[in-house]
């Protein structure tokens, strides 16, 4: 129907491809694919273009998605993963828009591609390919790595509103774009404008475009939809039809603006919208005012608050469609446009008249009618919200619909059959969603807590190869026979890429016929030769925990951190109760700030946060998670000891915030009892990442301090944007949010270092910084201290930290 | 970019199978590599023609799956300069759909979009819609009318040249190289979007 997501999808994914980047004389091309029987040549031709949309330097692991549209205007999603350490990109095509799951899938695949056991990859792919897609709300489990690991996919419930932080797209969008600009885009979409999103990051770009479409639910963008536009398709920006296109910054630079014509442009990096229209003000103002009010209530925006705010606006705008439904016995339900206008408040009428002429609204009505005519009734999230909004009309209408349904049933027509087919739990699940959502932050926290716990158990040394989702092995429902099936789908190798150093193709069966590489591209391979091979079973990184935590922490915070100080008592109680630290309110309070510094109270709040994060139980868990099971010292001991260092009373400085700025220079905020300094460090001389590790630790290391204290965590009370240091405009804003995110989320070096904590030879300053960011402030040695005190380019000694670590062994 | 003085965007509308794509391909003679439509849901072809002594670039756009729309709404073509509505003279249903497609166009008579009705496939023997019926319909709705055969290349060139000439005339009258029809001018200095200052 009017939905652009395919129904009755048979396979979890359609095709997995590995793509070789373009070289001087050759475009990007697919070097291998699974299954081999996937033969849509048009799509296979397009995949390389979207996998390498333009020439870009990739310093970090990056996930993004693109969308292909077929002749029926249905969407195929392409999920893409770029790893700076890999010569190729990997892409998975699916009809299912399950972003989080497919990014996880790609991470797992990336690891398996380097497995020493060649069958690992193909077994994983084929068992996933042939697995049955479970019922909504359930999970799909697939075992791999000879049954030692389980890959789990959540099958989304129907009508589930995207929520923060679980939905990474929305979280990204909300982070990058303020709510007023989100509203402008929302309005532009309702007016079916030609809309361009742009960003330097493909990940942000595709996430924002996808989310903008999610937010207009239950409407669906009916026009051109290209979350990432490759440079080669740049001319499509000239399309006179409505479009929503994500254009990488580099690509947008090459377009002549005058040729594009009237277009709305959202720059997701600078959070600016450029529009020749006044669509937002042309929407009925009371609707906009209440939307604005909802979005201003920061505390309610975690969970599905943002989605629901927009949904409510749509309910107010178009919910009245119900009054225009015509129920006639033995006839399909129809929609009366005139009645629709007439029954609305006069103020809304002009807008609605215009609305009737939009493709997006036509689609909406058609979809509603289909739902009714197939017996699904008023059963989705929109209808539910509508009933909240106007309870009266709901019951009357339902009665009407019930009568109509029974008259249809009496007919014994096809309708009955379709009702049976579709008799759905949607309403129930809708209610459930709402309930969940209603709990707002609490439930979001709960989610985080449980994730943290998962992380903890997964990090237990005793279960080195434990499952993704929980520390305990599960018996996997997928049948072992699927494994045996696999090979039939591979064609026999015809040519090999390069015999000894095949481009990450470990499975000869996966190799299919392709043209021999040109000499240039052969130069790509030698690196791979010295790839250390770890013994199988391989180690699977636990990615999602970190990603999701990071997303949460990245939440844009609009209120200044100073607000935190409004409840210092609570923070202090936390300190007191959690350990015997001598920190007391009196001691803890800092003297007035130096003139160059921002509000002292904001710093103190940051301190407190760092402080108790260091001993919080969940922090410990997180600390472990990026490390592998070979962690020698029981991390618990390490973490537990920290609080005993009396940071607060010490005159020694400690880092209260720090990280890298956009240009890569690390900046730290140091504080001791009486003062706070901003220290800018020169970049580290050494970087300890090996060319290709046996285990690609792809977790995005994040600063855990901010979220670790679940009770106290309140990101909405502080800000990352409202404050900038006077000393250096490049210094990232200081707040509960650690500036590290801006860069280190994507920073693979740091991520790789997650495994280095026990590795004395490579323990670099970065690691130390990282630990500090986690809230582990070991006694800085005198040298370090003096270094910091003396100002700018001090470089903490490596040995110090190393000693600190061994002490916990 | 190319040395052309005018760029005109033409949008094709009509039921599936009426030969929209063939029509364009015939006109452009494959001058622009086709085929993206299969993957991103939209396709266009370009042909540069000369009108008078001026070079005019025609971009002809076609979206996949527009058949799913009951009617084409104005948002779909408001940035276009011309709209070509195509039906198949050998297929009555494609003609019967025209009023649906046009519903919008009538309501927005103010729209300056140049509208052309095209009966395609005149090479076929099984004509169901007499030329006169098509003509009358076009007249009633204030459209140009032409019958073509993409297969035999009948009238295809003429169709697009006619459009180019007409748009040129319009453009000369407004004395601006019309990149965009600007039907929807709204006060750009909107209060609510104070962040629209970025200019590239």
UniProtKB/TrEMBL annotation, chain A:
Q: What Gene Ontology molecular-function terms does this entry list?
A: guanyl-nucleotide exchange factor activity; phosphatidylinositol phosphate binding
Protein name stated in the entry:
UDENN domain-containing protein
Q: Which GO annotations describe the biological process of this protein?
A: endocytic recycling; endocytosis
Span of domain UDENN: 12-375
Biased composition regions of type Basic and acidic residues, renumbered to the chain: 453-463
Organism the protein comes from: Dendroctonus ponderosae
Keywords attached to this Swiss-Prot or TrEMBL record, sorted alphabetically, are: Cytoplasmic vesicle, Guanine-nucleotide releasing factor
The superkingdom of the source organism is: Eukaryota
TrEMBL record, chain B:
Keywords for this entry? Cytoplasm, Cytoplasmic vesicle, Golgi apparatus, GTP-binding, Hydrolase, Lipoprotein, Lysosome, Magnesium, Membrane, Metal-binding, Methylation, Nucleotide-binding, Prenylation
Q: Which GO terms describe its molecular function?
A: G protein activity; GTP binding; metal ion binding
Q: Where in the cell is it found?
A: Cytoplasmic vesicle, Autophagosome membrane; Golgi apparatus, cis-Golgi network; Golgi apparatus, trans-Golgi network membrane; Lysosome
The record ties this protein, via Pfam families, to: Ras
Q: Name the coiled-coil region(s).
A: none
What GO cellular-component annotations does this UniProt entry give? autophagosome membrane; cytoplasmic vesicle; Golgi apparatus; lysosome
Presence of the UniProt keyword Nucleotide-binding in the record: yes
Cofactors: Mg(2+)
Q: Where is the composition biased (Polar residues)?
A: 182-200
Q: Spell out the residue ranges making up region: Disordered.
A: 179-200
Q: Which Gene3D superfamilies match?
A: P-loop containing nucleotide triphosphate hydrolases
Q: Which domain of life is it from?
A: Eukaryota
Mainly localized where?
membrane
Q: Which PROSITE patterns match?
A: RAB, RAS
- The question of whether Cytoplasm is a record keyword is answered with yes
Tell me the membrane topology, using the record's own terms. Lipid-anchor
Question: What is catalysed by this protein?
Answer: GTP + H2O = GDP + phosphate + H(+)
The EC designation for this entry is 3.6.5.2
Q: Which PANTHER family match?
A: RAS-RELATED PROTEIN RAB
The UniProt similarity line reads: Belongs to the small GTPase superfamily. Rab family.
What role does it play? The small GTPases Rab are key regulators of intracellular membrane trafficking, from the formation of transport vesicles to their fusion with membranes. Rabs cycle between an inactive GDP-bound form and an active GTP-bound form that is able to recruit to membranes different sets of downstream effectors directly responsible for vesicle formation, movement, tethering and fusion. RAB30 is required for maintaining the structural integrity of the Golgi apparatus, possibly by mediating interactions with cytoplasmic scaffolding proteins.
How is this protein named in the record?
Ras-related protein Rab-30
Instruction: Please tell me the species this chain comes from.
Output: Dendroctonus ponderosae (Mountain pine beetle)
């Amino acid at each position: 129907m009017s939905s652009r997501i395919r129904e009755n999808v048979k396979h979890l994914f359609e095709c997995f491809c590995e793509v070789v980047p373009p070289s001087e004389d050759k475009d990007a091309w697919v070097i291998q694919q699974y299954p081999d029987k996937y033969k849509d040549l048009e799509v296979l031709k397009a995949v390389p273009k979207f996998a390498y949309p333009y020439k870009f330097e990739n310093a970090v692991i990056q996930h993004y998605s693109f969308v292909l549209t077929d002749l029926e205007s249905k969407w195929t999603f392409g999920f893409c993963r770029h790893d700076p350490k890999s010569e190729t990109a990997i892409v998975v095509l699916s009809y299912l828009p399950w972003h989080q799951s497919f990014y996880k899938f790609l991470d797992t695949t990336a690891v398996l591609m380097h497995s020493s056991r060649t069958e690992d990859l193909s077994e994983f792919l084929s068992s996933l390919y042939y697995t049955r897609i479970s019922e909504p709300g359930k999970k799909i489990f697939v075992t791999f790595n000879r049954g030692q690991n389980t890959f789990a996919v959540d099958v989304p419930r129907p009508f589930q509103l995207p929520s923060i932080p679980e939905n990474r797209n929305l979280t990204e969008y909300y982070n990058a774009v303020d709510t007023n600009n989100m509203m402008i885009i929302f309005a532009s979409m309702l007016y079916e404008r030609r809309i361009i999103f742009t960003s330097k990051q493909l990940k942000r770009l595709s996430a924002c475009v996808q989310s903008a479409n999610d937010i207009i639910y239950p409407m669906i963008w009916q026009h051109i939809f290209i979350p990432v536009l490759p440079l080669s398709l740049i001319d499509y920006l000239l399309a006179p039809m409505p479009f929503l296109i994500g254009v990488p910054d580099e690509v947008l630079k090459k377009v002549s603006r005058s040729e594009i014509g009237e277009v709305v442009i959202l720059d997701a990096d600078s959070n600016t919208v450029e529009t020749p229209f006044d669509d937002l003000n042309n929407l009925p103002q009371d609707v906009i005012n209440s939307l604005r009010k909802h979005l201003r209530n920061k505390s309610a925006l975690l969970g599905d608050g943002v989605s629901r705010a927009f949904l409510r606006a749509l309910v107010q705008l178009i919910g009245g469609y119900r009054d225009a439904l015509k129920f006639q016995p033995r006839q399909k339900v129809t929609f009366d446009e005139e009645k629709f206008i007439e029954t609305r408040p006069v103020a809304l009428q002009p807008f609605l008249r215009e609305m009737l002429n939009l493709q997006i609204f036509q689609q909406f009505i058609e979809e509603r009618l289909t739902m009714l005519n197939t017996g699904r009734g008023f059963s989705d999230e929109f209808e539910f919200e509508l009933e909240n909004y106007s309870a009266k009309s709901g019951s009357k209408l339902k009665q009407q619909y019930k009568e109509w349904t029974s008259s249809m049933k009496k007919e014994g027509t096809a309708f009955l059959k379709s009702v049976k087919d579709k008799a759905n739990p949607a309403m129930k699940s809708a209610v459930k969603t709402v309930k969940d959502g209603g709990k707002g932050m609490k439930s979001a926290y709960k989610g985080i807590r449980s994730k943290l716990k998962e992380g903890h158990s997964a990090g237990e040394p005793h279960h080195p190869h434990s499952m993704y989702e929980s520390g305990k092995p599960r018996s996997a429902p997928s049948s072992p026979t699927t494994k045996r099936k696999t090979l039939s789908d591979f064609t026999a190798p015809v040519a090999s890429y390069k015999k000894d150093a095949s481009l990450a193709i470990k499975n000869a069966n996966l190799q299919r016929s392709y043209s021999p590489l040109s000499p240039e591209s052969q130069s790509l391979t030698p690196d791979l030769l010295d790839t250390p091979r770890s013994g199988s079973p391989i180690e699977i990184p636990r990615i999602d925990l970190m990603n999701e935590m990071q997303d949460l922490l990245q939440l844009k915070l609009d209120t200044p951190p100073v607000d935190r100080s409004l409840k210092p008592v609570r923070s202090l109680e936390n300190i007191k109760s959690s350990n015997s630290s001598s920190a007391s309110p009196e001691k803890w309070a800092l003297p007035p700030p130096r003139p160059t510094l921002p509000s002292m109270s904001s710093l103190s709040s940051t301190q407190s946060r760092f402080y108790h994060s260091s001993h919080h139980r969940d922090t410990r868990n997180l600390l472990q998670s990026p490390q592998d099971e070979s962690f020698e010292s029981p991390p618990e001991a390490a973490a537990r000891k920290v609080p005993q260092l009396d940071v607060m009373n010490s005159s020694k400085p400690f880092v209260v915030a720090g990280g890298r700025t956009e240009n890569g220079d690390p900046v730290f905020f140091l504080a001791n009892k009486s003062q706070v300094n901003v220290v800018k460090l020169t970049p580290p001389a050494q970087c300890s990442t090996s060319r290709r590790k046996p285990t690609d630790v792809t977790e995005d290391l994040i600063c855990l301090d901010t979220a670790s204290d679940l009770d106290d965590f309140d990101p909405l009370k502080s800000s990352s944007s409202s404050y900038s240091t006077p000393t250096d405009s490049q210094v990232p804003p200081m707040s509960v949010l650690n500036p590290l995110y801006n860069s280190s989320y994507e920073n693979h070096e740091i991520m790789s270092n997650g495994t280095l904590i026990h590795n004395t030879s490579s323990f670099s300053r970065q690691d130390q910084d990282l630990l500090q960011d986690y809230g582990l402030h070991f006694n800085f040695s005198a040298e370090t201290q003096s270094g910091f005190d003396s100002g700018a380019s001090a470089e903490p000694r490596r040995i110090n930290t190393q000693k600190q670590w061994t002490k916990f062994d | 970019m190319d040395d052309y003085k005018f760029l005109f965007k033409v949008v094709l509308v009509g039921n599936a199978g009426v030969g929209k794509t063939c029509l364009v391909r015939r006109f452009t003679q494959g001058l622009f590599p086709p085929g993206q439509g299969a993957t991103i849901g939209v396709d266009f072809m370009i042909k540069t023609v000369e009108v008078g002594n001026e070079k005019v670039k025609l971009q002809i756009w076609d979206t996949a799956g527009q058949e799913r729309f009951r009617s084409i709404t104005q948002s779909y073509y408001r940035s276009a300069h011309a709209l070509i509505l195509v039906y198949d003279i050998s297929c009555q249903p494609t003609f019967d759909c025209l009023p649906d497609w046009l519903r919008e166009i009538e309501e927005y008579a103010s729209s300056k979009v140049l509208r052309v009705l095209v009966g395609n496939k005149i090479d076929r023997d099984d004509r169901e819609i007499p030329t006169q019926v098509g003509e009358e319909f076009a007249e009633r709705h204030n459209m140009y009318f032409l019958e073509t055969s993409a297969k035999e290349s009948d009238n295809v060139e003429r169709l697009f040249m006619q459009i180019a000439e007409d748009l040129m005339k319009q453009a000369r009258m407004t004395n601006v190289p019309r990149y965009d029809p600007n039907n929807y001018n709204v006060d750009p200095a909107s209060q609510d979007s104070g962040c629209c200052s970025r200019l590239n």
